[in-house]
Amino acid sequence: PECITDPPLLPDEQVMLKEMYDCFGSYLKDLPAAYRTVFVLGDLEGLPNREIAEILGLSLDAVKMRLHRGRAILLKQLRQNCKAEDWL
Q: What CA–CA distances, in Å, run from 61 to 13, 33, 47, 57, 66?
């Protein structure tokens, strides 16, 4: 069977991608721990909110609130500091 892959990135695309990851990573690590943990488990690891609540010993509402607030803080930082309009 054929394997379909994306074409390799051009050098300027590679640079832009690295800048995006670096900028995102710097603001992700600066998120308050309560928001960062929920964001990583939910948005990066793909865990459902109920499972995050069980793991962290939080209510489902607390997880949803932390995820919403963490995303908002991160998005604000990305828009202000990372030329995010190019990739959000």
A: 39, 17, 15, 12, 9
Burial of 42 (0-12, 13-18, 19+ CB in 10 A): buried
Read off the DSSP letter of residue 84. G
What is the C-alpha separation between 70 and 49, in angstroms, rounded? 14
Gyration radius from the chain CA atoms: 16
Local structure of residue 87 (DSSP, 8 states): T
Look at the alpha carbons of 57, 62, 68, 73 in this order and tell me if their dihedral is positive or negative.
negative
Q: What is the pLDDT along the chain (88 residues), one digit of tens a residue?
A: 555 677 787 887 777 778 888 888 888 999 999 999 999 999 999 999 999 999 999 999 999 999 999 999 998 988 888 876 665 5
- The structure tokens listed for 10 are 């051009």
